[in-house]
Amino acid sequence: MYSKEVMDHFMNPRNVGEMPDADGVGVEGNPVCGDVMKLFIKVKDDRIVDAKFMTFGCGAAIAVSSMITEMVKGKTLDEALQISKEKVAEALGGLPPQKMHCSNLGADALRKAIEDYKNRQKKN
Amino acid sequence: MYSKEVMDHFMNPRNVGEMPDADGVGVEGNPVCGDVMKLFIKVKDDRIVDAKFMTFGCGAAIAVSSMITEMVKGKTLDEALQISKEKVAEALGGLPPQKMHCSNLGADALRKAIEDYKNRQKKN
Amino acid sequence: MECYFDHVATNPLRPEVLEAMMPYLKEEFGNPLSVYPLGVRAREAVEKAREQVASLVNARPSEIVFTSSGAEANNFALRGIAMARQYEGKHIIVTRMEHHSVLNPARFLEKLGFAVTYVNPDRQGLISPDDIKKAITDETILISVIYASPEVGTIEPIKEIAQIARERGITFHTDAVAAVGNIPVDVEDLGVDLLSMAAHQFYGPKGAGALYIRQGTRIIPLIFGGIQEGGRRAGTENVPAIVGMGRAAELAKEELPQRVEHVRGLRDKLVEGVMNKIEAIHYTGHPDRRLPGHASFCVEYIEGEAMLLMLASKGIYAASGSACTSKALKASPVLLSMGIPAHIAHGSIVFSFGMDNTMEQIEYTLEEFPQVVRRLRELSPFAKGWEGVEEEGRCTPKK
Amino acid sequence: MECYFDHVATNPLRPEVLEAMMPYLKEEFGNPLSVYPLGVRAREAVEKAREQVASLVNARPSEIVFTSSGAEANNFALRGIAMARQYEGKHIIVTRMEHHSVLNPARFLEKLGFAVTYVNPDRQGLISPDDIKKAITDETILISVIYASPEVGTIEPIKEIAQIARERGITFHTDAVAAVGNIPVDVEDLGVDLLSMAAHQFYGPKGAGALYIRQGTRIIPLIFGGIQEGGRRAGTENVPAIVGMGRAAELAKEELPQRVEHVRGLRDKLVEGVMNKIEAIHYTGHPDRRLPGHASFCVEYIEGEAMLLMLASKGIYAASGSACTSKALKASPVLLSMGIPAHIAHGSIVFSFGMDNTMEQIEYTLEEFPQVVRRLRELSPFAKGWEGVEEEGRCTPKK
Ligand SMILES: Cc1ncc(COP(=O)(O)O)c(C=O)c1O
Ligand SMILES: Cc1ncc(COP(=O)(O)O)c(C=O)c1O
After folding, report:
1. What is the ipTM of this complex?
2. How far apart are alpha carbons D148 and D176 in whole angstroms?
């Protein structure tokens, strides 16, 4: 069902954990629906230098979270905003059709985290 | 499906043939329905001394015809009239339910042959 | 000598097919819905089989829904389309050549308020596209025509009728159970919307059939429940049987030309011999437009079941459409609808050939069959003719 | 270590069962309708299997109709009784514990104009006979209640409910697919009118199910056609699968007490260990009135499919009613109807045991499962509690 990449990111997820000093946090999903992704980013000079996640969800949701934290690291915010659900799925060697929404969740959490970062910047 | 006795009487039918000098002939059935039995009897002193048949029909119809010609031989007319469809079926070691009508056909042809004999007697 | 000449009834499993099934009867017993590898492998096996079956009839895999039999596929097609299109109209056209598993759902739909037209064949079992056209009304939503008759072998003009249906926006189904795997069948070339098949008709297992459903055709399920078969047919998949159907389809596709040639040779030899050696016999169905391995006759003055039994005692296994071989005790409605009188229809006998048959078996049969006919005619009160038979006689119910 | 703990999904074939099937997959390939010996032997094999299946549930052989699956049996029961009794009334009662293959035919019948009442279970999955009684109207023609739940194991008070139905002249059906072969089931003692079963639930083959239909119960077929199964279910019989179901039924009858004892021992050990070793976990279903080989839990803060995958990587194969394991992406309606909040229902996991399982497998699982839970909780944003979760939150459709 799942590709090798999905299983690898699920079994050995990268960048797990809270990030107390995050510059931006995005939460997407709803536990009533079965998936919640919490994405933390650290930003320096408009570039994401670190990312972490905590996820409640299925294997695909966890793999997507892990993959997207890897993908964003080192990217500028603008580059990161280009990451679509298709790109995440592609990086994972594909997802079963009914699991595509999981990669959307990942992309949305990332967008929220960047937004959060930008909002915080404005306030300062 | 069929008992050994049925198959024996079907494969080696007894008393097959026309009987030009029959004392009574009974025909039962209709070729449109798939069975016709023609039963010939020879009668002496109110006793059936010989019987023959010609049958158009299935294996059961042929076996029933053969069996009933065997059963009547040596019987008085009154005894022969006691032969019911159940007795024919029983003598054949049983018949599948949907084939029971075949033994009815046999009993009816016999009754008609006896009636024919009696009618001829009356006329003489 | 043993001669199995009843390939329209069912076929032996090909050893290659059983071999493909065996893992799924043993260690690969997973449920295709399960997420762990045992289930995933079962799912993959089912999807591979779907591709193989699709390929046999030139369909897309997503257009194949597995069923448990040809009869289920036919019921699914008729009831499913009737339910899906009932608000557009309530008229259905079928033919009198159909199998019970088309006719009886049609009768059931009549009880639900649908009108059904039953189109008659000609004397050779052919349905005329013109007669179909004439039967169409503004209410017609579905036409179902059998592809090839298991009783008389006739192959119907499906492509022409599908064309007529398509022009009028009517869904077209064909029961191709007796055809698929035995002659080339191509859903794209035919232009049909639905097509039924059964694995046991082409050396696949019993318990596996399929309905081809052209993409975009709306249909209501016959078996509701889980999400198997894309929500169109519920129930835990019969994985071994489905895998077997796939392998059997693959073999059929590879071997089709040889199969056709082999059984046609046997059939032609039998027909020639039988027609020469036996008097008062009719070759039923169409002489050319027919299944290549199919020879059907009506033998006058004797009855079919008796022939079957006596042939069986010689090791020759055939079929008949006589009343006595049907539990309903009625002569084959197909033969009657072709205009064959009932008393002659009772002498029906059908030989159908397969890959396991040989020319020696045909020669043996050409020795034995005429003797069987002779022996039964010796018992028959009609051996000299049908004297006193009114063709229109009616049968009183027999109890 | 490999541990197959998903016996509610499907079961391996017993070697004895496969052995009984083999002749019918090879030389005994006849069609049971054929009159020659090959066909007669197939017919006899089917009738023997019918006796074996009847005996397992204390029915008469003539009361058993073979189907292709449990789902088909359920559809046949619901649609067949609804069609047969529609002129007496158009109200049907089912429960929210039912399998999709009962619920979805019920929904279809709603579209045809029937009214359906869905009775809720209590927190332990039990249906109250009183609630059924209250749902009855003068229009009620059919009540269908699942015998035992594959999701939470709860065994329903079928006998009491059947009694209520009988007193009111209402036909009563039970879906006993998860029960037959796993616990004693006796149609006479229960007093049910119809009962569904599936062979693959008791080490028989996929592709064989049966519907028990009490003598005298009028029902309309689901699959119309020929005279197979006494005219109640058409289609060439899946002889090997039916023979396998018969043999599996025979074995089940012989071994039932040992089977129950074996799986109950395993189950009790697992439940005790799991409840001791894992925090924030709920044992779902009824603690006592449940299938002996069935243990179901909701593990808080993590999701079922993720558990399944991680367990599968350890060779442990289980099931879940979480949204992510269903293609519909909805949490199990059964768990929700029992009053379990959706976010907790997503942590559903079900272990179901069979004869192939051992105490060593349980011990292994008691090592591995708590670690899986721990690892997933390390990833979970809720590991410290469900902060901010509104129980009544609604899921927006996910595309
Ligand atoms: C209670 C219940 N009913 C019905 C079914 C459907 O049976 P099948 O999968 O044989 O169609 C199942 C499936 O396991 C079941 O557990
Ligand atoms: C033309 C035709 N349709 C339908 C069927 C029914 O198929 P099955 O026996 O697989 O249910 C048959 C049976 O052989 C058939 O010949």
Report:
1. 0.94
2. 7
